[in-house]
Design goal:
By secondary structure, the chain is α/β, with parallel strands linked by helices. It has two domains: 98 residues, no CATH class; 236 residues, Rossmann fold (3-Layer(aba) Sandwich), CATH 3.40.50.1820. An eight-stranded mixed β-sheet has the order 1-2-4-3-5-6-7-8, sandwiched between helices. The longest helix has 23 residues. The radius of gyration is 28 Å and the shape is globular.
Amino acid sequence: MIELEPPPAKQSKAADPVPSSVRLFQHDPVLDLASPVRNLILAIAALAAIAVALSRLLGATSGLAVTHTTVGTTPVTVFAPISGDRAPAVVIAHGFAGSQQLMQPFAVSLARNGFIAVTFDFLGHGRNPQPLKGSITETEGATTALIEEFAEVAAFARGLPASDGRLAVLGHSMASDIVVRYAQRDSDVAATVAVSMFSPVVTATSPRNLLVIVGALEPAALKNEALRIVAMAAGTVQIQENVTYGSVAAGTARRMAFSPGVEHIGVLYSRASLTQALVWLDTAFGRRLPDGDVSLDARGRWLGLLFLGLTVLAPPPFPHCCLVSPTAREGRTSHGVFCCRWPPRRLSSPHSSSGRRRPISCLSWSVTIWRHISRSMAC
């Protein structure tokens, strides 16, 4: 007798080309917003958020006189109170790979409180048409060129019709060293604000009245630099934050401030940073300190609202891909960080209760990405 092998079992459904262990988007009832009505509501809310954010950002300089000009070939922007009253000028310089737009929170905040703020684009940065030659790590060459450019802008600021002739300087990162060196060369500079500072030329008395601001989340090297600088004036290593050492009248004042919850770029938008700079300059110029809340630039929150609205509206960037889930990493599969289906099809969560695949909404995509991106980076 010949025994026949039973035929293989018929597969009722083609195997999913992507193992279930590497699916990132498991069904989440809370995030299941596939309903057209709810998506429409989300879209309207996102558009409203974008509109509000843009209106606030575009109106950030309302109430100020803003003038765009050039000093030689250097693009310069002047922020001044519309009152036209004579006031001290503050020249504000950006860091490496930055531009004057990044420094607008300081410029707007100072101008709203009675100062004339001047920003500009360094050589090789922003809209400056001239290249920056040489290395910024060498005193001769690039550093000298940046100091000379800063000096030209400072002379322009002093000569503005609304300027009373007094001058302060503010610089971020790379520019902190530039403003320090310039202030040491020009003893008429009343005060220096150095944000995310590193400068090997600072002494216990030079430059005059130095405030060092560092983001609390910045590298320890920058915090240690702030401690070192203030310690020289204090004569002790037991330095306290937000305490002024030395004498403002004598020009030897030193102070350090750590802005909470911000890093190297966030420190430029921090309300704590803006407040510290304003109070320091008011003190240095003998101006009346503000009572209660002061008018500060608040574009940080509006930028956050703008990005949130854009994220909700944006479609998934890779509609046929997903990130590897934590369960896939246990076996170190060969899919890497991304696993892609081919041919591409609409990204969806595996299955609904009825067995049909559910489309993933834009908000689901956004929230799920934020939930899982840190774990996926460990792949």
